Amino acid sequence: MLRGMFPPIEPHAAGHLPLGDGFFLYWEACGNPAGRPALVLHGGPGSGRSERARRWFDPARFNVILFDQRGAGRSTGPDDLSANTTPHLIGDIEALRRHLGVEDWLLLGGSWGATLALAYAQQHPGRVTGLVLHAVATTTRREIDWITRGVGRLFPREWARFAAGVPEAERGGCLATAYNRLLLHPDPAIHHQAARDWCDWEAAILDIGPGSAAQSRFDDADFRLRFARLVTHYWRHAAWLQEDQLLDGMATLAGIPGQLVHGRLDLGSPLVTAWQIHRAWPGSRLTVVEPAGHDSRDPGMAEAIAAAIAALAG
């Protein structure tokens, strides 16, 4: 068991919340039903909730709520991605909060989950008692260009294979857009190969830190396709956020406690983003984990995330 994490736990409640237009959001609650509410926002987009995330919280003190975002995990709905955007997800979080009768909650989000947590908190600051963010990302076009192109300087062979997955004429443009077109192609041979190429690239650049493991979830062809379609859909639109919108909006969170945890060697989400958010957020705390990368399974990251939650638990 990673240091700071609690033993495995099963939900005390779960369900599918109807959202309208044929969407149903899967949610579950773990720990103490009378405890402090905490909401876990998974990464990806499209990764889905994980059983491991239940274990960050003291089950005697927290009522931990997890859910699968649209298109992920056990949530169901139409394949139409036009109804799957950041504003839709923020609305889903509010629908879930009202459904569960929660007044306000602590947010935990990593990677894409950090973007979503900041976007939700800036829109509904009165509903947030604190934030714990790890592998901090804000999904700017600058960050997307880095993760799809810039970091290729450190992985030239892997990036060459990744770029070769799209037609030569499209390699100089937004690779997320090019891949999204292929992933939505009606020919299974084309969209499944694009999903394989996309996920191979993600695994190559993110699974590098001590304690990291191969992304076994990418062995599932159906998961690869759903995941890659969602990631490229969100990235090609820069999450429907103005460039630096979240950084510029940090004053909205003044007075809300925040803990940022970031690996020094996170090549997918370079430390500069977490540093900028920290500098713009008075009272926040930034913990840099040496020599961790992006993966929260890294023992140092796991311990730091658990300590950050404990700090906000008082």
Architecture overview:
The structure is a single chain. By secondary structure, the protein is α/β, with parallel strands linked by helices. It has ten helices and eight strands. An eight-stranded mixed sheet has the order 1-2-4-3-5-6-7-8, with helices on both faces.
Which SSEs are present, and which pair or pack?
Layout: E1 13-20, E2 23-31, E3 36-41, E4 62-67, H1 86-100, E5 105-111, H2 112-123, E6 128-136, H3 141-148, H4 156-163, H5 175-183, H6 188-206, H7 221-236, H8 245-248, E7 258-263, H9 271-279, E8 285-289, H10 299-312
Parallel strand pairs: 3-4, 3-5, 5-6, 6-7, 7-8
Antiparallel strand pairs: 1-2, 2-4
Helix pairs in contact: 1-2, 4-6, 5-7, 6-7
How many strand segments? 8
Q: Output the CATH topology of the largest domain.
A: Rossmann fold
H-E string: EEEEHEHEHHHHHHEHEH
Portion of residues in beta strands equals 15-25%
Helix content: 25-40%
> Taking all residues together, what is the mean pLDDT?
94
Total domains:
2
What is the overall silhouette? Answer: globular
Main sheet summary: 8 strands, mixed
N-end to C-end Cα span: 23 Å
CATH top-level class of the largest domain: Alpha Beta
